[in-house]
């Protein structure tokens, strides 16, 4: 139990931050093997991965 409490405030590494925030721009997120990006007309998802500056399409 003590270990769980101590790990509660653990900082995320860069890879975890990108997964949670969608990278530096915060404009994308990962949904399985698809990268989803926020566009003016809505959310667009296609095969790819979420990178530092948005989606990297396959």
* Poorly predicted tracts of residues: 4-8, 17-24
How many H/I helices? 2
Choose one word for the global shape.
Answer: globular
What is the H-and-E element order? HHEEEE
Mean pLDDT: 73
How helix-rich are the residues, as a percent range? 10-25%
Structure explained in plain terms:
Residues 4-8 and 17-24 have low confidence and may be disordered. The termini are far apart. The chain has a domain at 25-57. The longest helix has 8 residues, at 14-21. It has a four-stranded antiparallel sheet. With 58 residues, the protein is α+β, with helices and mostly antiparallel strands. Helix content is 24%, strand content 41%.
What is the fold's blueprint, element by element?
Blueprint: H1 2-7, H2 14-21, E1 28-31, E2 34-39, E3 42-51, E4 54-57
Antiparallel strand pairs: 1-2, 2-3, 3-4
């Amino acid at each position: 139990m003590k270990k769980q409490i101590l790990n509660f405030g653990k900082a995320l590494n860069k890879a975890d931050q990108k997964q949670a925030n969608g990278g530096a721009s915060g404009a994308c997120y990962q949904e399985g093997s698809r990268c989803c990006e926020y566009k003016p007309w809505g959310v667009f998802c296609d095969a790819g991965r979420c990178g530092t500056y948005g989606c990297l399409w396959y």
